[in-house]
């Protein structure tokens, strides 16, 4: 049966973890995967999470099946975080949310559901985008195309190119849009840019699918929701995939959500019934632990405040690492000007390093990054940053 089967290539991001773990060097640094490490180089267990977990352990709750769409109090907390506690859409019952297996699971649920709708069958993703977007939508049966996004010359957004490419797509194409902290470039749209995109989406009847996996890592929970809120105000139907992997440091718990905005409460009910069908035929219903903990934290004012404080510390530490990295590269006489790194937001820097330079970082210095030059700034700390900037200077020249 398997004699002719080919070996699949390693995943471009998670495959780096496999290679990193197998590397015997003790001074190795993993700047590949999008994971926040604290100053001590560890993935933190947030205090708000640990407190909620203690409460649940004491309660000794049974583990029955969840409803197909997940923990209800979790879904309502997700909706408030995305759309705002005072959102008119929520008051009118226009939004339905299903708990998902991480943000990736939310994308797949949405992809499978949209296949049942009247779409062009084309999905457009930014160039560049998170590596798994293309693979996921291709596997779900779509034709995946790029739209221009990042301008390497300015290290900024190519808005004109983006709008032209979105315009050229067939009507009713699915647009995957990074709502904040664009992965991998860290370059986001301004509210004025979003207004232009929204007008185009409306005119071309495109189907917007906002991916928001890093809410809170840009400027704050509310600030980072601006694109979602603007789409909500537009009156369009759209999709949102969200994740707590990063903001709760909850990677292995796989806690995400798919939210869909409909035009009426009746429509929303029918949409949810179809999303539930997709869930039931894939994995039946979601796991209890992670979403219950997130719900407890978000719905308990003291824990919510504690979590927001911890998230702000993570965000600020990443910003300070950006500044230190740029300063060190300058002080060490790097040939290239890396000052653009401080203007990027979220966990990543799209460093401009070539695939060959990234390979040299790995081979010669034990520093792992994605071959596109994406490095995870959230994995830098005062103990490893010197070695990292030395190595970047060594491979990129002085
Ligand atoms: C990343 O981009 O590194 C993260 O989103 C992890 C992943 O699943 O790829």
Low-confidence stretches: none
| SSE-based structural type | alpha/beta
The distinct ligands, each listed once, are: (2S)-2-hydroxybutanedioic acid
Give the overall form. Answer: globular
- The residue-averaged pLDDT reads 97
Look at the structure and name the CATH superfamily of the largest domain: Type I PLP-dependent aspartate aminotransferase-like (Major domain)
CATH topology of the largest domain: Aspartate Aminotransferase, domain 2
Short description:
By secondary structure, the protein is of the alpha/beta class. It has helices at 14-22, 47-59, 72-83, 88-91, 102-114, 131-139, 159-168, 191-204, 226-234, 265-282, 289-299, 301-331, 355-365, 385-396, and strands spanning 29-30, 95-101, 122-127, 143-148, 150-151, 156-157, 174-178, 207-212, 238-243, 255-261, 348-350, 367-368, 374-376.
